[in-house]
Design goal:
By secondary structure, the chain is of the alpha/beta class. The chain has a single domain, classed as TIM Barrel (Alpha-Beta Barrel). The chain is built from ten helices and eleven strands. The chain has helices at 46-59, 70-75, 77-86, 106-124, 140-148, 207-212, 215-229, 253-260, 263-276, 289-296; strands at 14-21, 65-68, 90-93, 130-131, 153-154, 175-177, 180-183, 186-188, 193-196, 200-203, 231-236. The strands form three sheets. The protein has a five-stranded mixed beta sheet, covered by helices on one side. It has a four-stranded parallel beta sheet with strand order 3-2-1-11. Strands 9-10 form a two-stranded antiparallel ribbon. Helix 4 (106-124) crosses helix 5 (140-148). The protein starts with 13 loop residues before the first strand and ends in a 12-residue tail after the last helix. The structure holds zinc ion. Zinc ion (ZN) is lined by residues 20, 22, 26, 94, 98, 134. Residues 20, 22, 26, 94, 98, 134 line the site of zinc ion.
Length: 308
């Protein structure tokens, strides 16, 4: 059985953590009840929940990548960008306005991905290297555009059958590079999955699945992923540790369940996960990860402070 203390410096395993910084009303599942036109009127809780996450990460001595939504970075530069960078975490982009990529033209996506990167870079003075697509809606052309815009990696490929919104990229277009992939000049850091019986992909990368699955099952699955793949990539949204956000009612029963299930248990499970596995920022999955730390370390780069 593999020890769950993972990291380059421990026993060769790498576990990475990405936080998709958005508010409770940005999620695609609640858009029928909270369309874009109403976002300004929705109660904003993201600053408080990001603050809570930062406390948890500090208490567990964990560094992560925060993929921040550009419109939120613009609105709350101090609490959602400077505070995160100051705590030594990596900053990435979650796009500017949380549009599914499948609904954007190439030019619209280019503008959105450029704007979100520029907003964060203007605040920190440091380059944004990574991108996380809303609802994992990545596609091949988007990867080319990200590369043209100066991104070094994407972390949006979620190869499970759980949602029709998830993007697909043909395996023949991806080249395996160590634990991750390369598509043209861009690295792809995929979301983790467990291949049950070597065939059925089980989503064990985080988010709603993390809230739904019993913790002992999740822990067992992660242990299996680490022993089989030597790499684990996990994600969470700030609103998933906030049981106090308004109940969303005018959506389907299924989507209401997905959005609200086990919110009161998530913080405890997240703490347990962080105490079980040593996580690192997502850029540390890249072959150049340790060198990126040196190149863009404190005072001139990704906001990554120290090599653990
Ligand atoms: Zn999102």
């Amino acid at each position: 059985m593999v020890a769950l203390t993972a990291g380059y410096s421990m026993n060769g395993y790498v576990a990475t953590l990405g936080i998709d910084v958005e508010d409770w009303y940005h999620a695609e599942n609640v858009q029928p009840a909270c369309p874009r036109a109403t976002w300004e009127q929705c109660e904003s809780r993201v600053e408080a929940s990001v603050g809570r996450l930062l406390e948890i990460l500090d208490e567990t001595d964990t560094k992560a990548t925060f993929f921040v939504l550009g419109c939120l970075a613009e609105k709350y530069p101090g609490t959602l960008v400077e505070r995160i960078a100051h705590a030594g975490h990596e900053l990435g982009s979650h796009g500017y306005s949380h549009h599914l990529l499948s609904r954007l033209s190439d030019a619209e996506f280019q503008e959105d991905a450029y704007r979100s990167k520029a907003v964060v870079e203007d605040i920190t003075g440091r380059p944004v290297l990574g991108y996380r697509a809303p609802s994992f809606s990545i596609h091949l052309r988007a990867l080319e555009i990200l590369s043209e815009l100066g991104y070094i990696y994407d972390s949006s490929l979620n190869r499970v059958w759980a949602s029709s919104r998830y993007g697909r990229i043909c395996a023949s277009k991806m080249k395996k590079t160590g634990r991750i992939y390369r598509v043209g000049d861009l690295y792809e850091v995929p979301m983790s999955r467990l291949k049950l019986f070597g065939v059925v992909p089980v989503p064990l990368s985080g988010g709603g699945y993390f809230r739904l699955f019993p913790w002992p099952v999740w822990r067992l699955g992660v242990r299996r992923i680490l022993s089989q793949q030597g790499f684990y990539n996990f994600y969470l949204h700030p609103w998933e540790i906030d049981p106090g956000f308004p109940k969303v009612r005018n959506i389907s029963l299924l989507n209401r369940f997905r959005h609200h299930v086990n919110l009161d248990k998530t913080e405890g499970r997240f703490r347990a996960l962080l105490e079980t596995i040593k996580f690192r920022p997502v850029s540390q999955a890249l072959p150049e990860g340790p060198r990126l730390l040196k190149k863009f370390g404190r005072g001139g780069g990704t906001g990554l402070k120290v090599e653990r």
